[in-house]
């Protein structure tokens, strides 16, 4: 692909990414509507120009028999879809409260188009930021799944039982991933079932729940249930809190598409959640000890979140939290 078109497409995608962040319901009240309209108009003109140039360049490559022409055609088709959606978005009266319902639906469609663009740019070895919009249902599911695991740890006859439960979940998740790749119809059914809580990138990549299954299996092998309790509590409650804080108030950017404000929210929520889970399910000592172990685990989990794109924060957060908890407990002579 022509280097200039690579850079221009990536630059456009980043501006589209920033627009979609501004359309997130968590940030909507802070959005300057007139500026937003101007940005939509500029993006619409830019994507139309990119589409025309990509089509022309891909035709040249086809005429010369180069294999890369097919990928360029697909990229151009994706840009055409994005352009059509921006045209629809431009037509919506975003100053009207009633029209926000239409804006919300169109934003979701534009989000999926951006995900297709994300996949195409990855295939062309030109990555763009991964988009994660606010999803209240997913955040609630995150918390409830963590609570269910904490209850299982507490009420199974012995902690060793958690290995077999985690192993069954592990095989279920990876089996489903295999079916998704072997059978497109199965993939469509699975993603439709979880459409309410799924991120767009999970349509084409390994689901976060599958990486969570890996984390649970590793945690079930820990020498004490305390480590699993802490790691699950930090992931289940701090991760959604960080997302909410970051989207609403985040301004200071950090690696991994995170913000300093979101990471601080993660640390505070993770410390409190882990401390509460220990106090209720498995006390380890006085308040000072509980807070210290929880704070170290939450801080490590926040670092794990920053590296969460490789491969997924549902794996890196609990693993980092568990490492922090294990090290602190070992230093205190408690394991």
Describe this structure in words.
- The chain is mainly α and 335 residues long.
- It has helices at 3-22, 33-63, 69-91, 100-123, 136-155, 161-182, 184-193, 208-219, 225-249, 260-281, 287-306, 313-331, and strands at residues 253-254, 258-259.
- The protein has 2 domains: 3-123, Four Helix Bundle (Hemerythrin (Met), subunit A) (Up-down Bundle); 136-331, no CATH class.
- The protein has a two-stranded antiparallel sheet with strand order 1-2.
- A hairpin with a 3-residue loop joins strand 1 and strand 2.
- The protein is elongated and about 70 Å long.
- The protein starts with a helix and ends with a helix.
- The mean pLDDT is 85.
Quick summary of this structure?
With 335 residues, this protein is mostly helical. It has 2 domains: 3-123, Four Helix Bundle (Hemerythrin (Met), subunit A), CATH 1.20.120; 136-331, no CATH class.
Q: What's the assembly state of these chains?
A: single chain
Total of helices = 12
Residue-averaged pLDDT: 85
Order of helices and strands: HHHHHHHHHEEHHH
**Unreliable spans:** none
Q: Which percent band covers the strand fraction?
A: under 5%
Radius of gyration: 23 Å
Structural class: mainly alpha
How would you sum up the global shape? elongated
Q: How many strands, what sense, and barrel or not for the largest sheet?
A: 2 strands, antiparallel
- What count of domains describes the coordinates? 2
> Strand tally, please?
2
The termini sit apart by 56 Å
Instruction: State the helicity in percent bands.
Output: over 70%
Could you give the order of strands across the largest sheet? 1-2
